[in-house]
Amino acid sequence: MRAFDYAAPSSVDEALRLTKPGSAFLAGGTTLVDLMKLDVLTPDHVIDVNRLPLNGIRLSDGHLRIGALERMSAVAAHPTVMVHFPVISRALLLSASGQLRNMASIGGNLLQRTRCDYFRDVTAPCNKRQPGSGCPAQTGVNRTHAILGSSSSCAATHASDVAVAFVALEAMVVVRGRGGDRIVPLEDFYLLPGNTPQVENQLGPDELIVEVRVPVSPLARQSTYLKIRDRQSYEFALTSVAVALSLRRGVVLDARIAAGGVGTKPWRLRAVEDALKGNPAMEKTFSDAAESAVDGARPLAQNAFKVTLLKRTIVRALIDVAGVR
């Protein structure tokens, strides 16, 4: 790990004033510190934000409001989240290990970097880490890579589980900069790689996520998160699905669905949602709707299995939420 300057401001304004080229914010450190040890990230200035007043989990103005420094474990176990937003609780509980969930912040989780091995190996080329150097995943080991939203420059998947749940529920992030606050839908906050995979989101270098806001809705109460992975614990998703449903007399009134493990960002599945609405909540409906989930998929040599796996994951999650067989 390279030498760096360290500061621990006590206010958001102070933290923003301290930003300069080569700065990085430190919260739980579960991503940043790992990447600094590998020399993947080499900030000259580390700004510890743990003293900032960015905590709190509450319902207000029709939204669940979560402070960016709330720990993943605290959000997962909060009674309001468990009852009204079970998909969020479940996504968090299926993330990482208990020890890491106790350390990692919600804001940090949303900003975590990809687990692509090429990105994390400084001896390998990677357009995310070194623009213009190439993307070995295109022809190399790519079993865990994206089939949706990729480009010839990058096929790395987004790592966050809870971001998938947040996107399904149409959550927003409150971003604070020196000019004030702005509110950005999380789905729009993340950017596709295109020709600039090193630009992953809309966060400016002198901005900080201060809060996540999730609209309160009947759908959120009837929701779940299903994660398929190579082993039961401490593993990233091959595919995952966040599902929220509104049912009446066995008919789907409304649906919100997003997928993880298959896209370069959390992937909202609007075509699947539209195919479900107004149709009976039954396995055939779910299976027919899931076909549109892979429209535009671009599988690589080793990850074509994700096309079928994603569709099956959607069907299983819908069956679980709807309570049908």
TrEMBL record:
Keywords: Oxidoreductase
Domain FAD-binding PCMH-type: start-end pairs: 1-219
GO molecular function terms noted in the UniProt entry: FAD binding; oxidoreductase activity
UniProt keyword Membrane present: no
Signal sequence segment: none
Presence of the UniProt keyword Repeat in the record: no
Pfam family, one: FAD_binding_5
InterPro entries, per database record: CO_DH_flav_C (IPR005107), CO_DH_flav_C_dom_sf (IPR036683), Diverse_Substr_Oxidored (IPR051312), FAD-bd_PCMH (IPR016166), FAD-bd_PCMH-like_sf (IPR036318), FAD-bd_PCMH_sub1 (IPR016167), FAD-bd_PCMH_sub2 (IPR016169), Mopterin_DH_FAD-bd (IPR002346)
SMART domains xref list: CO_deh_flav_C
Gene3D superfamilies tied to this protein: 3.30.465.10, CO dehydrogenase flavoprotein, C-terminal domain, Uridine Diphospho-n-acetylenolpyruvylglucosamine Reductase, domain 2
Domain of life: Bacteria
Protein name: Xanthine dehydrogenase family protein subunit M
Native source species: Lentzea tibetensis
